[in-house]
Amino acid sequence: MRLGLNLGYWTRGPEDHSATAIAADRLGYDYLFTAEAYGSDAFSTLAWYGSQTSRIRLGTAVAQIPARTPAATAMHALTIDGLSGGRMVLGLGASGPQVAEGWYGDPFPKPLARTREYVDIIRQVIARERPVTSNGPHYPLPLPGGTGLGKALTSIALPVRPRIPVFLGAEGPKNVALAAEIADGWLPLFIDPQQVDTVFGESLAGRAADFEIAATVPVIVSDDLDEALLRAKAPLAFYIGGMGHRSTNFHLDLIGRLGYADAAVAVQQKFIAGDRAGAVAAVPAALVDSISLLGPAHRIAERIELWRDSPVTTVLFSGVRDEPTLRLLADAVRG
Fold this sequence. Notes:
This protein is of the alpha/beta class. It has 13 helices and 10 strands. The protein has helices at 18-26, 42-50, 70-84, 97-102, 111-127, 173-182, 196-204, 225-242, 250-272, 276-282, 285-290, 297-308, 323-334, and strands at residues 2-6, 31-34, 57-60, 63-64, 88-93, 166-169, 185-187, 212-221, 293-295, 314-318. The N and C termini lie close together (11 Å).
């Protein structure tokens, strides 16, 4: 099982986690991922950390598809891959209708078809085998109409690799199946290692032998397990209650498939009503414990075995910033 970090996105002012990135690189971590929501972007921070590290692979978990055209995303990935000596992993996700349409002004319908076209164009740009074209309805290239002067182009920048790995962030069964079909890996969020096969086995059935499952795993090391559980509940309550519309929330749907449908609805209702403390309290302790690594060091070392015994190939620890914890987790994974 490989080791990684998910440093997430800024939730307040500028957050520079260079010391964490450098320590992870020195300790032999395999991956470092950054993220974006509707604030800081994933590529700028990834390039910043990439410039201060030498071997750790650099990924986005995830770069949002509605944020950029596929060609622009390919340019970001090609540039970071070139400057880092071939360390880029491009994690992509469709986001949701609230962010796609409310923040980016981009239509959300047919996210599966849009993702398929998006990835195909990126692969064309990086492969540089011929001028980039697309006949799809979502990202037609060259653009029909307009001035009529659009021309199929080939990147003037030579990539350092003909193919950059593409991972997809996906929660629904059809999205996960798409990842298994067209991508090099899957970036699950809120995943119980003991339920990967039962919840996602059918969707993952067609994956290649070298397909990566890189799961983000919240970590809180504390001698007080109850306190760790309470801290871990807060972000989960926000995702269930606030990261999606009342009628369309993919995080809430996922929690339901994990066996907590009624609890997820209760969390959402309290959150929407403005009862944030009540929403946090309504998150089941068993749920947050199943998708996280919480408590004393010895307990975390024991529970890492659940991930090692699952189909997950890489754990991306989130919420970890200090070198002693990085070392503890590395030692636990390596046995």
